[in-house]
Amino acid sequence: MQKRIMITDSHCHLASGRFTDEERAGIIRNAVDAGVHRMVTLATCLGDVQKNLDLANDQHVRAAIGIHPCDVHSAPDDALEILSQHVSDPRVCAIGETGLDYFHPAPDGWSEASFRKRQQDFLRQHFELAAKAGLNVVIHTRDKEGAASFEDALAIYGEFSEKVRAVFHCFISGWDLAERVLAKGGLVSFGGVATFKKAELVKETVKRCPAGSFMLETDSPYLAPVPMRGKRNEPAFTMHTARAISDQRGEAMEDLAAHTEDAVVKFFRK
Q: Where on the phi/psi map is residue 109: left (φ > 0), alpha (ψ -120 to 50), or beta?
């Protein structure tokens, strides 16, 4: 009998308001039935930390806790102190989602410079918390053009890379940037964008990443992969991305699952 392939959705948002309370258990069950036996659900603000922790009571789900860069303006100055109260919880497997977002405009009352500085300050605080807790960090970067958020996030990561590993999630850039993350001991993770017809840049990166240097994700409920593009994304769809990446790399699904699972186990607290 052939062994069933099992993979991890290393980045999803099960506490998102796009999923109702009544359907979340079914969404987790659908994922497990599809072969996605482990999910990491990420908090993006203080308000959804407890909901993510509650979801992590399921044997297949663990939580990461953090403040998304688009939420730093509404977070209190002591937000990371509040998060620190949860780091010893065994349901917490990483710090994040944190990072830098230069795509969205500064909110009312903030200049671009002041908003970016607050994001950078919060990112450093996330790294400091991770270093104290013995956890790793999940990073979001996004730009309208260029790679300024990536460059700034990578520089901040460099200040902590001897103590903490980081994953640059939903990676859609070229190999030249991915290689710099890996050189610092970090990882990248690939989601639905890697299945898009015109995403040649990230597909080339997928091919060049060494085994063990990347993970798979959905970022659900966003960015559903082909053939589910346009629908609400969910963890079960990680399998579509895995099959596409397996084909792009000319690699058996069994081998892809083996080394991405190894990367997951090494990155996230068991």
A: left
